[in-house]
Amino acid sequence: MSDISVKATEAFTAAYGEEPAGLWAAPGRVNLIGEHTDYNDGFVLPFALPQRTVAAVAPSPDGTWSVCSTLAPEPVSFGVTEPGEVTGWGAYVAGVVWALREAGFEPPAVRIAIDSEVPLGSGLSSSAALESSVLTALIDLGGLDVPLERRPAIAQRAENLYVGAPTGILDQSASIRCEAGKALFLDCRSYEIEQIPFDLAAAGLAILVINSNAPHQHVDGEYGARRKSCEESAAILGVPALRDVSVAGLPDALDRLGDDVLRKRTRHIVTENQRVLDTVALLRDGRVREIGPLLTASHASMRDDFEITVAQVDVAVEAALAAGAHGARMTGGGFGGCVLALIDAAEAGSTADAVAAAYAERGFTAPTSWVAVAGPGATRL
Ligand code: GAF
C-alpha cells in the first residue's frame, strides 16, 4: 500500500474503530494548455498527476455521512442536506452527496477518511481530487449506474452550487477521465474526449512542474470577474459562448466590443482555444517538441490579456526559458500556483536550479519542482 493509502486507512480506523471496506483514489491535474476556456464551452488538454487523494470508505451504521482527514481527524457528520448546511472542507463531500441525489441517484450513507498528496491551494485541483475520490467511492459502494461521462458534471455541480465556487468542468474531468500516459483532449461543450498519447520520455523530453509557492491573491473574486467578462463579451457579440468566435472572426469581434478589458479577455479565450487545437494536432503527429512555442504564447496571453499571472509565475517562466526550456506557462486558474516547462529530460535539475536562483535573487519564497508523468484517473485501489 502507498503511504497515503496507509495513512487514510489509519485515520479511518482511529476515527471509526473499524477497518474501511475499500480505498478509492483520484488525482490532481496539470493542464497542459487551455486555460479559462472550459467555462467558455471551449477546449482543454489536461493530464492527471501521479499525486492523488485517497478516500478510505465503509458503509455507515446509522444512515448519516461522516468525513474526517489526516489534517482534520475529528469527523464531520451530516444527514441529507441542502447547500449552505455543511461548510468548510466538509462541504466538498456533502456537496457530492447532494449533487448525486439531485441527479437522481441515491448515494449510500458512508464513513470516510481522507489523505492526500496533492498540494493544497497550488492550482493542481486538490478540491476536484477530493470530490472525485468520494464520488467514485459512493458510485461503487452504492452500485450506482452513473456513466463515466456524466460524473465530472456531478462533481462540478457540487463545487458550483454547494461549495459556491463558479468553476468550469476542467478539473473534475481530468481527475475522473484521464488515463495513464495520455493527455485528455476535452470539448467542454459536448464533453467529447480524445485520449492523446503523451509519452514524453520516448521523445527524450519531460514536463517540469514548478510550484511558485506564491500565496493566492483574491483568487475567488478575480476568477468570478474573468468569467463574468467572458459572458458579457459573448452576450454583446450575440453568441452562446466565446467558443463560437473563431480566430478569423476575432478582429471583427474586437471591433464590436467597446471596452478594452472585454477585448483583452476575449482575445485570450479565442486564441487559447486555437492554441489547444494546434497543440493537439502536433501531438497527434508525434511532434511533441514543437508544442513549446504554443505553451509560451499561452503564458503571454494569460499575462497580458487575461491578466491572471503574478510576478512569481512570470519569473519562473522566464527563468525556465532562459535555461533552455522549449516552452513554459502557468497552469491552472492563476494568481499564483504552478508553472509547467517542457524540457529535455536531462535538464530537469538544471532548470529547477535556474528557477530557484531567480527566486532567491528576487527574495521570493523558494519554489518546489518535480517532473510530472501522466497518471491514471479516479479508481478503486
Ligand atoms: C480552475 C477552475 F476550477 C477550472 O474550471 C478552470 O477554469 C481553470 O481554473 C482555468 O483553466 O482550475
Automatic annotation (TrEMBL):
Q: Indicate the segments forming the GHMP kinase N-terminal domain, all copies.
A: 92-176
| Highest taxon, organism lineage | Bacteria
Give all residue intervals belonging to the Galactokinase N-terminal domain.
10-59
What GO molecular function annotation could you give as one example from this UniProt entry? ATP binding
GO CC field: cytosol
Keywords of this entry: ATP-binding, Carbohydrate metabolism, Cytoplasm, Galactose metabolism, Kinase, Magnesium, Metal-binding, Nucleotide-binding, Transferase
One Gene Ontology biological process: galactose metabolic process
Q: What is its EC number?
A: 2.7.1.6
Q: Which residues form the GHMP kinase C-terminal domain?
A: 281-360
Per the record, the similarity remark reads: Belongs to the GHMP kinase family. GalK subfamily.
PANTHER family, A to Z: GALACTOKINASE-RELATED, MEVALONATE KINASE/GALACTOKINASE
Name under which the protein is recorded: Galactokinase
The organism's lineage is: Bacteria, Bacillati, Actinomycetota, Actinomycetes, Micromonosporales
- Gene label: galK
